[in-house]
């Protein structure tokens, strides 16, 4: 079975719990992460096994992202969701 490839947007407080859960799912692979703070994105990427650190625009259009997991602050949810949808990528919001 091909794993679901997830791109995570937002590497703040709640993302640690998601990293722990996502890495424990055999049929899910975190392939990309984006955050306004590049160091946080890099830390999250390392925690999930080396996902690529990308900009939001690159993440939502990436060939290796099946769904965007939107973990941003509420004020940014709509912008991230609309960017993913405009790119033809599924999106799930926290």
CATH homologous superfamily assignment: NAD(P)-binding Rossmann-like Domain
Q: Helices and strands: which structural class? A: alpha/beta
User: Helix coverage percent of residues?
Assistant: 40-55%
CATH top level is Alpha Beta
How many individual β-strands?
5
Shape: globular
Summarize model confidence as the mean pLDDT. 95
Query: Do you know the CATH topology?
Result: Rossmann fold
- Euclidean distance between termini CA atoms: 26 Å
Walk across the major sheet and give the strand order: 3-2-1-4-5
In total, how many domains does the architecture comprise? 1
| Count of individual helical segments | 4
Q: Order of SSEs, N→C? A: EHEHEHEHE
What low-confidence regions span 5 or more consecutive residues with pLDDT below 50? none
- Strand count, sense and closure of the main sheet? 5 strands, parallel
Corresponding CATH architecture = 3-Layer(aba) Sandwich
Percent of residues in beta strands: 15-25%
Rg is 12 Å
How is this structure best summarized?
By secondary structure, this protein is of the alpha/beta class.
């Amino acid at each position: 079975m091909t794993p679901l490839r997830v791109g995570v947007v937002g590497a703040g407080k709640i993302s640690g719990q998601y990293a722990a859960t996502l890495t424990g799912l055999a049929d899910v692979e975190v392939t990309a992460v984006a955050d306004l703070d590049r160091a946080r994105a890099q830390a999250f990427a390392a925690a999930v096994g080396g996902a690529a650190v990308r900009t939001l625009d690159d993440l939502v259009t990436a060939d290796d992202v099946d769904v965007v997991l939107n973990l941003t602050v509420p004020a940014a949810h709509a912008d991230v969701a609309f960017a993913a949808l405009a790119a033809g990528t599924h999106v799930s919001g926290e």
